[in-house]
Amino acid sequence: MKQQTFTDAEYEGRKRKTRREEFLDSMDSIIPWAQWCAVIEPHYPKGKRGRPPMGIEKMLRMYLLQAWFSLSDEGVEDAMYDSYAFRKFSRIDFMTEQVPDATTLLKFRRLLVEKGINEKLFVDVNARLEKAGLMMHGGTVIDATIIAAPKSTKNKSGRRDGEMHQTKKGNEWHFGMKVHSGCDAQTGYVHTITATAANEHDITEAHRLIRGDDEVVYGDSGYLGIEKRDEIRDDEHLSKVEYRIAKRPSSLKSKIGNGGTDWDREIERRKASVRSKVEWPHLVVKRRFGYCKAAYRGLKKNLNRFYILFASVNLLKVLQGGRSVEFRSVSL
Q: Read out DSSP for 28-72?
C-alpha cells in the first residue's frame, strides 16, 4: 500500500469531494487497468535503449484525463501540477517522480493511433458488457452527429483539413465531420461507431451500424428509404430487418380515431421514446467531455479519440445504472 503524504492527509480533512474528484474516483474503480495495459504492452517501447520509458498505466491515466477534459498535451502537463485530483488519479508523487512532459504524452497518443489501440479498448468494454449480461441484442438505434472542425486557413499548409467538408443543416452551414453511432435499443450502450466527412449522408453508414443479430432498427427521418438501398436490399440479413424510421411531421395526416387518439402521432411518439437512447451518448461526448470540435486533422485521429470517449460513456452508464459489480466481476 502506498504511503500517505502530508498532502493526502491535508486533503482528507475536507468537508466534501468535488464532482471532478468523485468522477475520477468512480472511473478509477471500474476501468480494468491491468487488462488495458496488457493491450498496450506489446506495442510499447521496452526501454532497451535510451532512458527508461514511463509506466504504461501512468501514461494511460494521463491520456484519459486529456480525453475526458478536452485538454492539449501541454494542458494536461500543466493540470497535473495544478490539480490534486489529477495527480491522485494519475498516482504521481512528486517526492519520488515527476510528471511526464507534453512530448512524452504526444508520442504515447500517436502510438495509440498508429496501432488502433483505442478501438481495441472500446471492443474490450463492449465484450465485458455482453458477458456481464448488461448489453442486449435484437435492436439498434442509429444516429449521426456533426463535429465542427477549424475553418481557418491560417496554418502551415494554408488550407482547411482535406478530409473535412461542409454540409447544410437547417439554415446553417457546418464544416467538419460526422460521427455515426449505433446503440443498443434496450439499454442504450453504444456498440458501433464510424466517422465520415460532414457532407456524407447519414444513411450511407447505416449498414455498418447494424449488428448481425438485430431484428429491428430505429432511426430519425434522415434514414427514410433505408430499405431500398443496395447494401441493405442485397444483404440476406439486413433485408429482413424491420426498420422503424421516424416519419416527417408534414406527412402525419391521420385523423383523430376512437377515444380521441391521433394514432400516427402516438406511434411516432413511441418510436421517439426508443430513439432518444442514442442522444445521451452524444450529449455526454459533446457537453460533459467537451469534444464538440475536432482537435486533430484527419478522420483517423479524431475517430481514435471517439473510441475512447464512447467507451468511457458506456462505463459511465454502468456506474449510473448501479451495475458496476457485475461489470467488474467479468474476466475475459
A: HHHS-HHHHHHHHGGGS---SSSSPPPPHHHHHHHHHHHHHTT--
**Binning pLDDT at 50, 70 and 90, where does residue 13 land?**
low
Spatial CA neighbour of 306 closest among 321, 296, 316: 296
**Alpha helical stretches, state H, 91-234:** 102-114, 117-131, 230-233
Most confident of 90-94, 201-205, 328-332: 201-205
Measured at the CA of 242, the angle between CA 241 and CA 248, to 5 degrees, comes to 135
Please check the confidence at residue 15 and state whether its pLDDT lies above 90. no
8 A C-beta contact, residue 316 and residue 190: no
Short-list 19, 331, 306, 270, CA closest to 144: 306
C-alpha cell at 165: 467538408
Distance of CA 122 to the CA centre of its chain: 8
Spatial separation of the C-alpha atoms in residues 144 and 180, rounded to whole Å: 4
Give the contacts of 32 (CB within 8 A, at least 6 positions apart): 124, 128, 328
pLDDT of res. 257: 59
Task: Indicate the SS3 state at residue 245.
Answer: strand
